[in-house]
Every structure is written in structure tokens, then in C-alpha cells.
Amino acid sequence: MTSRPFDVYQIRRDFPSLDQHIHGQPLVYLDSAATSQKPRQVIESISRYYSGANANVHRGSHSLTSTATNQFEAARDTVAEFLGAPKNSIVWSRGATEALNLIAQSYGRHILKPGDEILVSEMEHHANIVPWQLVAEQTGAKVVKWPVDPISCQLDMAQLDALLNSNTKLVCVCHISNVTGTLNPIREITEKAHNIGAVVVVDGAQAVVHEHVDVTELDADFYVFSGHKVFAPAGIGALYGKPALLDAMPPWHGGGKMVEKVSFGGTLFAQSPAKFEAGTPNVAGAIALAEAITWYKSIDRKAAERHIAHLQKRLVNGIQSLDDLNIVGLQPAASVVAFYVEGVHHSDLATLLDQQGIAVRSGHHCAHPLMDAIGINGCVRASIALYNTEEDIDRCIEAIRKACDLL
Ligand code: PMP
């Protein structure tokens, strides 16, 4: 598909929610790392599905159910192609969190033994920490921290060499940090982990909307993401797993659709991915996720990333021109800027920005260990998407300046 030339004002016309006022001011939405706004093509696809092909999938033989099933399975193919993954290596989930829990409870619980180690980076979102703690408790395995440098907010590859050992069974790491935007060298990590026989779980929640992801090139064993961060609705996401791993894994949830034959003598499970998809799935969500990917692929993504990097630089320059503002782990050309003001509570600052129509996120960003490593209890994060403009950035800088004068 040929992409249309990048024009931020034309792109904005696809996003009805951006055209609104908050506290009497035009909205500046700088919280896309929490969730992206949705293009009308995605919103319309949900309405179209429920106005037409709505039926349960993989059940019955009437026309609507086969139309719904075809659309649902075509959506799986769209996700597979988006990730550079083979067909049938994609399992639907509610999002990144559920996918990580599935890996922990199906793969992890099946293979981990007392004394085994699960290496988890210190910059992870809680969604890529807590499932590993739960499975460690269930199996006697141990979660080992891969420390982050508190200033650069990057991971040290030499430290990875020192931490990997014959007990390491899993390495769990994000592709891009949700707090600082740190881009981790996944290919290098998978190579090192595979050398000692460990399996690598990549949390791609923040990456699929910025990086060109190819799980085959990355050689990731598992890769997860949430649809809502890539222009799709909440409640749908995907798990990629290498087919040999998925085939060997036992199911996690039991119920309808994940079986070949059930009797009181025992159950014969379906093949993967159906084996992991018990119950009625989010059909409209899966179809809308495919629509979101198709929409996103219609954009010149390289130009979009150049635009985002330009806006991030503008925001960084603006913030650095203000007194007492500290940027946390600044990453060049990332889509996020995390910052705090000495002596000012981050939520007070975010509230004053909201009153000026600027939506940013404040808090610990579901990354307590990273906050502890940096030595702060929270910060404000402005996150930029392809639909933001220079005017958005300038209004944000001006709003921070005004808020700081008041605090
Ligand atoms: N990992 C990262 C890096 C994230 O940013 C998020 C969402 N903030 C998650 C995991 C969890 O995603 P979800 O809540 O959509 O499951």
C-alpha cells in the first residue's frame, strides 16, 4: 500500500476527539503513551460491525457467523503481517497485561523449577514485573533485577552478560520504556539470552506505534502489545509466540472454543492459537484493531516519526529554558518527555496543566521500581503522537511556565 504524504492537519481531521475544549481551552492531548485517540475509520468499523456482521465466531454455520469469522481471522492475519510474524502465531488477548500473564501462567508455570531465574529489567511497567513475581512464587523460581542506570535510564549490556547464567530461563524486557522512551536493543538481548538457552519476552506496548517491529528479525520468543495504544479500542491486544513454543504450552484458561473434544474422562485441546482463546472473543475489537493498523500503515510512518522527534526536541528545548525543571532520563528522538519540578508535587503540576486544556499524565506510570531507581516518587509525562502539532507543544510549554509561576 502506498502511504499518503504526511500532513498533520489532514491527519487531525481523522480524529474527532481532538476537536474539543477542556476548561474552555482547545484540547492539547499529550497523553498518547497512556492511550491513543481513535481515528474515525476505527470508530466507524465498530459501528459497522455491530450494525451488520455481528455474530459469534467459529460457531454455527449461518451466514453471519461465517462473515464474522472471516473478518476476525483476516484481522489476525493483519496483526501477524504488522509484526512480521507467521500466520497462526498470533493469540488474541485483552491487551499487553493479559498477554504477559498468559505467558507467565502457561509457559512460565510449565517450565520453571525451584532455583530458576527470571531476569526482569528495572525499567519495566508493572505488567511485566508482577506476573513474573506471581509465577516465581508458584514455582520456586526467583525474579532477578537487571538494573537500569538512574541517570541515562538505559540498560547496560555488559551487566546483562554478567547476570545471564545457566539458571536464567526467561529475560523480560520492554522494547520502549513507557516513562522515558528508552529504546532497548532487543536483537542484541535476544542473541545474548539465546546463547545461554533463555527465552525472551518483549513488552512492545509502547513500541508498535513508533518502531517498525519485525519479531522474526528481532528473534523475540514472545512479543505483546495492546491495541488501544495504536489507535484501536481498549480491550483487544495480541500475543506473538514462536509457533514451537505456543504448540508446547498448555492452555491457561479453559472453556468453549479451545477444545477438540470434551468428556468427563478428559479434554482434548484445540491447536494453537485457539487453545489460548477460551470463550467468546472481542470480535469487534479485533476487527477494529486491523482497521487501526490499516489506517496507520496508510501514513508515511518515517515522516510521522521525524515529525514526532521534531516536536519532542521543541518540547525539550522549551522545558530546558524553564528554571527548576528536571527531565528524567532524556532520550533523543523519543516520543515522551518525563519531568518534575523540585519541591512541587507532580499531580499539582498536571492539574494546573489540565486547567489550561493540556492533558498529560502524572504519577509513577506503573513503574515503581524505575521511580525508586531514579529516586523520585513520580513525575509528569508528556507523550507525543503523530497528530500533535507545534502549536500543541508551544501551548504546553507556556502552560508549564504559568503553572510554575503559580506553584
Ligand atoms: N507495558 C507498557 C510499557 C505500557 O506502557 C503499558 C500501558 N501503560 C502496559 C504494559 C500495559 O498495557 P495494558 O494496560 O493496555 O494492558
3D structure, described in words:
With 407 residues, this protein is an alpha/beta fold. The protein folds into two domains: 8-30 and 300-406, Aspartate Aminotransferase, domain 1, CATH 3.90.1150.10; 44-297, Aspartate Aminotransferase, domain 2 (3-Layer(aba) Sandwich), CATH 3.40.640. It is built from 14 helices and 17 strands. The strands form five sheets. A seven-stranded mixed β-sheet has the order 4-10-9-8-7-5-6, with helices on both faces. The longest helix is centred in the first third of the chain and has 21 residues, at 63-83. The chain is globular. The termini are far apart. 4'-deoxy-4'-aminopyridoxal-5'-phosphate binds at residues 95-97, 125, 127-128, 174, 178, 203, 205-206, 226, 228, 366. 4'-deoxy-4'-aminopyridoxal-5'-phosphate (PMP) is lined by residues 95-97, 125, 127-128, 174, 178, 203, 205-206, 226, 228, 366.
Counting helices, strands and paired strands, the structural category is alpha/beta
Question: What is the residue-mean pLDDT, rounded to a whole number?
Answer: 97
| Separation of the first and last Cα atoms | 50 Å
Compute the CA-based radius of gyration.
Answer: 22 Å
Strand order, biggest sheet?
Answer: 4-10-9-8-7-5-6
In percent terms, what proportion of residues is strand?
15-25%
The tally of domains stands at 2
